[in-house]
Amino acid sequence: MQSKPSPASPLPAMSLAGVRVLDLSRVLAGPWCTQTLADLGADVIKVERPGSGDDTRAWGPPYLKDATGADTSEAAYYLGANRNKRSIAIDIASAAGQALIRRLATRVDVLVENFKVGDLARYGLDAKSLRELNPGLIVCSITGFGQDGPYKERAGYDYAVQGLGGLMSVTGERDDLPGGGPQKVGVAVADLFTGLYATVAILAALRHRDATGEGQEIDMALLDTQVAMLANLGANYLCTGRAPGRMGNAHQNIVPYQVFEASDGHLIVAVGNDGQFAKFAEIAGRPDWPQDPRFARNAERVRNRELLVPQIAAALKTRPRKDWLAALEAAKVPCGAINNLAETFADPQVQARGMTVAMDHPLSDSLRLVASPIKLSATPVAYRHAPPLLGQHTQELLREAGLDEAEIAALAQQRVIA
How far is residue 78's CA from residue 389's CA, in Å, rounded to a whole number? Predict the structure, then answer.
């Protein structure tokens, strides 16, 4: 596990140091984007509703536990997408709150929002209005279906987009087998991919802004992302006109590339080329397979998977999983165990790569989070702030924006801020 950074240690240079982001997003796609920017050094100001904040603060249990083992108000879901940010609680439905957002927008480089199409225009906080105040501002809007098209008014949720965007038609067991039928992916991949694509788009827009001084608007849609991430399956359909179906744990284009059952459990075999298949066949005690014209080349193995896969399944059932994994790994044939999350986080490679991080939190001294996978040699990710409490930095940020104590007190009395 990655240890806590020493408070006395100076922070290393960070790639996005000096970049300021106003984050009006909530739930997952937007916060995933802004957490990535924050991990890279951006100063991210998370704007939340007074009283309730980001919806995911209440998406529990599980919740972070305090020193006594009791639940706090901070849901694990929220904690997983909001580190390295500062929280300000502003009622943007009020005129005074809208004025504060405009003031903050003149002081930042990027604004990220995931309101429904047209909602921010009602408050005078749309991209056009804000960019008139700050021409260099980059505004990234994340919605379910984009700023135009017949579905633009619809609310967009990851689950629905996985279905509409075709992912559930290729995920799950084959329809002709027990348990067949539509299946969503176990994590919200449309949200997560959209957040990452949004991050890439923002970095590109920052480079353009730094070269020209010109900001721009970024229109990100969950459905667009879901269609793009169909990858080889989308290409398969466009090349053939035939929609691929569900294949369970098998691969559409490679054989053998799926889960098999050993004598005491399951393992993954992921043979990627004909040379690896020859090594695999030798280990499986079937050196005849690569000599068989039906199986010698991957294209033929795909065409004849119904003949080959049962033979492989029978062979793998004869020995324990650890024996297969040891032999296949020694021969450099891609393979793997199927871990639960406890086994994953206990895995020596995961630990060696520092894929968890401990952070100090105002309510708990035992906060552990999944670390960033980004490894940069000169400007590494730094873990500067635990996911903030609701409104934790409101007064600090308003002072930075030039408000005096009397102005801040008046806004608090009017319940514009919290």
Answer: 10
Catalytic residues: 191
Using left for φ > 0, alpha for ψ between -120 and 50, and beta otherwise, residue 332 falls in: left
Q: Are residues 80 and 166 in the same domain?
A: yes
The answer to whether position 243 is within a domain reads no
d(CA 9, CA 3): 13
Whether 392 contacts 89, CB under 8 Å: no
Residue range of the domain that includes 276: 257-346
| Claim to verify: residue 370 and residue 276 sit in the same structural domain | no
Contact between 73 and 66 under an 8 Å Cβ cutoff? The reply is no
CA distances from 192 to 26, 28, 41, 262 (A): 13, 7, 20, 33
Q: For residue 262, what are its two tokens?
A: 């050993």
Question: pLDDT tens track of the chain, all 418 residues?
Answer: 444 544 555 666 899 999 999 999 999 999 999 999 999 999 999 999 999 999 999 999 999 999 899 999 999 999 999 999 999 999 999 999 999 999 999 999 999 999 999 999 999 999 999 999 999 999 999 999 999 999 999 999 999 999 999 999 999 998 888 889 999 999 999 999 999 999 999 999 999 999 999 999 999 999 999 999 999 999 999 999 999 999 989 998 999 999 999 999 999 999 999 999 999 999 999 999 999 999 999 999 999 999 999 999 999 999 999 999 999 999 999 999 999 999 999 999 999 999 999 999 999 988 999 999 999 999 999 999 999 999 999 999 999 999 999 999 999 999 999 9
Number of domains composing the chain: 2
Tokens standing for residue 175: 């329809």
